[in-house]
Amino acid sequence: MRLRTRPLLEKHTPATTGSARSWRYHSVTLDLHAWTVWGGTAIAAAAFSYLTIASIAVRLRLKAVRSTLPAGAPPVTVLKPLCGDEHELYECLRSFCDQIYPHFQIVFGVSDGADPAVDVVARLQREFPDIDLKLVVDRRQHGSSRKVSNLINMMAAARHEYLVMSDSDVRVRPDYLARVVAPLLDSEVGIVTCAYRGNPRPGIWSLLGALFINDWFMPSVRVAAMSGSRSFAFGATIGIRRAVLTGIGGFAAIANQLADDYRLGELTRRVGLATVLSDVIVETCVDERSFADLARHELRWLRTIRAVRPLGYTLSFITFGVPVALLGVLLAAGSWPSLILLALTALARVVLHWAVRAPGEALKHLLALPLRDGLSVVLWAWGFVTRRVHWRDDRYQVTRDGSAQPVVRI
Q1: In angstroms, how far apart are the furthest CA atoms of the chain?
Q2: pLDDT of 193-202, one tens digit each?
Q3: Residues 6+ apart with CB under 8 A from 175
Q4: Whole-prediction pTM value?
Q5: What SS3 class is residue 284?
């Protein structure tokens, strides 16, 4: 009787091979699942860690190079480019007139004599006849940035060596000038800039805009500052000496820049001068009246950040806290470590809000945090879609170097 070994081998080989393939498939699946769980847990841990660090950073009080001015404080020119009758414009501009400082000048600038801001300036000139208040009306355009063109036109009226620039929607305390100018007396300092907090007008959209500033943007600045970075400058306040401004090419060097404030700081750092984050915190009025206003404003900020710091913008995803931790939970398939981290992240988010909120601020603002955080993630992602932004009634295309090219409507 002959043994038929070959057919038997052929019969069992496919089963054996199939078992091996099945084992390898399940092994890969298990490895992939493990990596996903660990990855999701790590993402949730990173979100919690960031919010914890941010809460610590906003509690630190960063001191300026000098906290007080010596005797014989230098005279200062304050530059205020204006456009339109913005919300609380009079109150904001008046706060700059009401300074405890020995000698200062304020130069206001508009591009159109019919601008409603002209009447506000005239009112201040009547109320403060002893202060040197100048109004410059000049429609000349020197680049794509209307704000910087305004500043260039205003410089002819600026009388003093020390300059402080500030946006029109900023409100300050009476000791503002003294505290901002003090660090500029150090020849190693290029610019002085200030942190700011948003003060919303009534309404959900203004509240969400203020939360964007107070709960996300400024804490990220504080974290960067705590780590030693000074790669920032804010239009809320920039103090600079005229000689330094001239040395970097004047305002003409940033005439096409959307992030004009950031570029001023960058140019001064390139020549070896330091950027000082003052211990002064100013207030900016947030006047978002609709979702469209809010989205346009924040997308302009976000796409500007993406243009000047693309890697930092991409990595900033981790700063959005609870939505990021929730993504981690989904990736980790609801594992108990990721769920614990999600709960801790939510708690850290409340702690951060509590640290940055203004005294007496309504507790009901806590209810807006989930909407704010979710919207932040959506707008951050939308920031990658295009480089176009809206600024007032104009549209611009932001180039890779941060320049703003006007978009012609057909």
Answers
A1: 126
A2: 999 999 998 8
A3: 99, 100
A4: 0.84
A5: strand
